[in-house]
Amino acid sequence: MFTSGANSLIESYLDICTINRITQKLEEEGFEGSGCLSDDRPVPELPCPNTDCIDIQITADNLQPIIGCEDQDKVNYTITICDVCPDEQSGTWDIVVESNGVTETLLSGGDFTDVSIINGIRYQRADDEFFEDGACKIFQFSIRAVGEASIGNPVTVKVKNGVDEYSDDLVTNPVSPSDLVHINGAGATPARLSTSTLLLPPNADCSLSGGTQIIRLSGVLEIDLDNLSGVSCYNFKPGSVIQMGADAKIVVKGGALRLSGVKILSCTDLWDRISVEDGASIQVVECLVQDGKYAIEAKDGALLDIQLSTFRNNHIGIYTPALTNPYLTQTVDMIQCYGNVFETTGGGLKSPFAGQKGLAGIWMSKQNAMVIGLEDAVPNYFRNLQNGIAAFYSNVAVQNSVFIDIKETTTTPLPVFSGMGIYALSNPYVSRSLTVEGLGKFGPSVFSGCTIGVFAHSTHATVENCNMVDTRQGIAVSGSRLRRVKALQNNISASEFGIGLFQNTPFKATIDNNHIIAHDPVSGQAIGIRVEENPYGVANYDYYWLKNNIVVMDKAREGIRLQGGRYLHAYMNTVEMTHDRAQDGLYLAGSADAWVRCNTVSGMSGSAMNQMSRGIFGIGNPSTLINCNSTDLTRQGISFDGLTDNSVVKGNYLNQHGIGLQIAQNGVIGIQEYAGNQWYGPFTDEGAKHFANNEITTSLSAFIVDASLSIGQPYDFMPQWEAVGQWFLDPPGNNGENTFYCLINEENACQENLNGPTNFKGEVDGLDEALAAGSTSFPQYTDALHWAGQRHLYRRLQEQNITPEPNTAIANFAASSPNSELGAFYNLENDLRELMKPNSSRETALYATQEATEMLISDLAANSRNLVAVNSTNDSLSLLAARASILEDIEENNDYADGLAEVSENSISSGISYLLQDNDALSDTAIYQFNEKLSTIYS
């Protein structure tokens, strides 16, 4: 930034610019400016002189163009001119680029059209195009360097108006073809430091060895310092350029290669890689590494230190190949990885991946532990790639890293996967973890414009404090059986779903304190939190929590979807609808033993509630407890369809709705005794409505209440309702002693750490009797619903050890079922559930071991931070020794955890083989029976 000019005095008043300048000068001399310049007279609004009001900044993006090299001979300039005073400027301002001896050609597409060549390139602009309303103006233009150059001569950019001049010497150091020293390692003999006379010789002192070099490499250059006496490091110093030929390769076989301020690139086809072998190390600081197939390949035992560098237009930026033996793991020690940019720019990659985006910034396989990013340092950026980070069978922690425009590839050739900000894949036999730490729930976005923010399969996954914007899927976790899944304190905007959990059967899942905007502007089908699990493996309500989340439904279908699974626990979530349209706040489908409590769902304020919006909707959820929830401003408050038998709906607050509680023609929920639901209203239709077409079905969802308790309250326990027959009953003599309330002194039903109920009804009721007797009647799907209801009833009789009264329909049902198809299906289902349940000791040990591993990975990250701040060689050596010990501990934990996981998986796989035989022997005479067979649930 450059300023200059003179003071002025007008009518005995000092103008503001002059006062500020004098005050600053006095303070520099030790005086208090305010004491020397006390002038109580009002200062008029005088304009500052032109020259004091101009701030100018000149930047260029390529300070070292390479003449004749595609895209590397181009320099993009940006000139920012700010008028910091509110006066009008006068005069004509010129921008001049003075040549350094290289012929420079102006490229099209910039801000300048009036061009003349006067010792370089001259751009002329009138004052009114520079200055309007005192704002800053930005001018951009590009030049291409052609011809020969003299290295080190500056390119001078000047902005002047005939009186004042602002200039900046940008040393562009252009490289001409004649500057390149050709290193030829092609053929049977690679080039080596010990044999090449064209490379600067190594030196025992790494700070002196090597130096600034301009080379062109063909074939292979080997750097093996272990074979050179007294030399452990080779250094390419700032300003070096390594122009790689097609498929050229650098192999670091021993010692350390240090690259600082170096450009590595190709002018035609992609070069191959820099390969760092076991025991060797590489340090890359403030470098440009471009046009590689695998820019840096790190083999087992390699050490990497990657800082403040740009990896541009590489197929993969940093790559750790899988070992030949699939059962072994490896350790590539990423000592530092911060402040780097992994990106695709321009027209994409060179041949053989012409026009494609980079496949991944970082791609790793079977790593014991790797930390990417450094807390409180410059972030890593992954931009405009097919994938950001891909991790296979690895423990990886990602922090302080930003993922931008990681889009799914829809054009050929299609990659195996794409659009993943972070992708982590493992299998049930390997216990590995992914942890992702963002920059704060409402801090800077760390995932922006990504198709999927984080995807994890068969992996312990923790994602927290991430701000994700403009994603299709925020966090997706699948197949993580007997693993731990956490999504904590994230802020996600997504068009398909914010958080999705699919067929995991986790050891523990916690989805807590996330803020999600579900926004699908095209079809309006977005979902905030989507859970689609199988009903096996989870043992109680401590395993699967969705709590304290806020979901804003902006053109969305469902706020929270709970489908399948068992013992899903949705607690204290808030769902806000921003449109009056067909949508569900909480959607439950086939989730047995679900516990939905103390959630809040609200529609649009002032909504006419004409669309089919529902606060809570359940279909086919046996033994479900729905208590202490609040719904408001939706067409239906709580709605049920199908068999939700043995369920309890109590203590809920139904506010303004068209219909407060609705049950469909085929819907039954069981007898609700003194459930304490409070109907506030007003209701534009009815407080409650049952659509059954016969009184018997209506009675199977009867609400027994003490209506007298509503007197003097703003709510009703018995609302106005509509049905064929009675379904709200007020028997005499109750006096309210059995009525349920959510908030009482003895027990607050909305406390967080309540023990989950083992069952919601400890006895059978009229619905159970009807199911046992076969006297249920449904307008549609009668046989299927009757079968499902009897399956639920028999399972509950067995699991809860309920002994029916003798000589009743239920007693006869319980006696005859074991030898029927019902009994055979139950035995198979129960065996599968027991097989999939976590082993109390083995899985606890697996969980504890993985937690310990993640703590060690956290220690590894702390070690990296300490290495950045280290002050002495001894301290550095001590930290590196501690680091090696941490990695050894992680490797031991991995081996132990893998052993536990293998035992579990072998047990499950062995058990499944026997269950499949029993499954095949089942007699299914209807499609609804076939659909419940094991082969359709687990494969």
Please, could you describe this protein's structure?
This protein is of the alpha/beta class. It contains eleven helices and 66 strands. The strands form seven sheets. The protein has an 18-stranded parallel barrel. The chain has an eleven-stranded parallel β-sheet with strand order 30-33-36-39-41-43-46-49-52-55-58, covered by helices on one side. The N terminus is likely disordered.
Please outline what is shown here.
It contains eleven helices and 66 strands. It has 939 residues and is an alpha/beta fold.
Low-pLDDT stretches? 1-13, 33-39, 41-51, 115-119
Q: So what's the oligomer here?
A: single chain
Q: Report the portion of residues in β strands.
A: 35-45%
Number of helices, counting only DSSP H or I runs of 4 residues or more: 11
Helical percentage: 10-25%
For the report, how would you describe the main beta sheet?
18 strands, parallel, barrel
In whole angstroms, the N-to-C terminal distance is 67 Å
Mean pLDDT: 86
What structural class results from the helix and strand content? alpha/beta
Rg to the nearest angstrom?
36 Å
Number of strands: 66
Shape: elongated
